[in-house]
Amino acid sequence: MGGCVGADLCVCPGVLEGEVGVLPDVGMTEGDRWVTGAELWDWREEALRAAQTAGVEAEELDWLLMAVAEVDRLELRLGGVKLRSHIPIRYALAELEQRWQQRLTERTPVQYLVGETPWRDLLLTVSPAVLIPRPETELIIDLAAASAVGKPLAQGIWVDMGTGSGAIALALAQAFPAARILAVDQSGAALAIARENADRTGLQGRVTFYQGSWFEPLGAYRGQLSALVSNPPYIPSALLPTLQPEVVDHEPAAALDGGDDGLTALRILAAQAPAYLVPGGLWLVETMAGQGAAVQALLEAQGCYSEIEICLDLAGCDRFVRAIYTP
Ligand SMILES: C[S@@+](CC[C@H](N)C(=O)[O-])C[C@H]1O[C@@H](n2cnc3c(N)ncnc32)[C@H](O)[C@@H]1O
Question: Are residues 60 and 206 in the same domain?
């Protein structure tokens, strides 16, 4: 586990450096609000002081501003923004202030305050009905793509188990244009957000959504799935109260709580996938740092998986487990 554990499920926007470029559309149409640069700068100065007092990273404020106003990081950092006469902005400053206070006092994640988050090259709607998709999860798509090279998986049926905002399912649809993508979640409210994201990304024809518990709604697909990809709930129940308030007080418990040892969902996915995967099918899941060996043991105990491999995330933590169904 070591130093990797603290990084689990950090909700700080992981896009602060570099990736905010995918946020040029701040949802404004003609006739929308605008402020002068001087007004915005003055508000930001005050908001920065409040952030410091509350122990919230100053970068989050600029993330918020870049998400709701037509400003870029450089002009915020260097002060060029205050020279502008007209800055389109989604909210009046009073409403922005109210949202920022919600961030500071209620510890509401900024992604929920603005209702969206960038993830890979997608801009996704989020609400408290769904987990905010994390930067470390982005790598699961690259692992899936690497796993499919030279195999017929790319033309098959893929499932994203516990789709939440739909992030993984939609990115799989992009990565595998010839595949059919299924997305399952127990939460109807989460699926409503996932469907909205399918619409807003233009991928609605590529993903079929199912409500139910894990494989339960997929009876028709027994023996037919080319791949199972999942970021299931994996936090041991006793650890939940120790997570940052942004996570435990605002994100859905069903997206986090992995039961006593954190492995409840992973156990189900390991045990039930063989009935649904084609021989040679891919099993690829995200885990909490430190769970890799336990998940490997779960798969070995099934006796029908080969090439079981623990994969690291960019921080060097064991984060994913990949295996091939080999009956
Ligand atoms: C950690 S979140 C992952 C969300 C999204 N895939 C992501 O990576 O951002 C886990 C998801 O699993 C869903 N879930 C929890 N229990 C489930 C169950 N029994 N069957 C189906 N989905 C479930 C939750 O509603 C939640 O959306």
Answer: no
Q: Residue 178 domain-assigned?
A: yes
Nearest CA to ligand 1 atom 6: 163
Burial category of 73 from C-beta neighbours within 10 Å (exposed 0-12, middle 13-18, buried 19 and up) = middle
Residue 29's SS3 state is coil
Radius of gyration of the chain (CA): 21
The parent domain of residue 152 ranges over: 128-325
- Residues near ligand 1 (Cβ within 6 A): 130-131, 133, 137, 162-165, 167-168, 184-187, 190, 213-214, 231-233, 254-255
pLDDT confidence of residue 9? 64
Which of 8, 163, 285 to probe ligand 1 with, by most ligand atoms within 8 A of CB?
163
Q: What's the total number of domains in the chain? A: 2
List alpha helices for the chain, DSSP H.
37-54, 58-68, 73-78, 93-105, 110-114, 139-148, 167-175, 188-200, 245-248, 253-256, 264-272, 292-302
For the chain, which ranges sit under pLDDT 70? 1-31
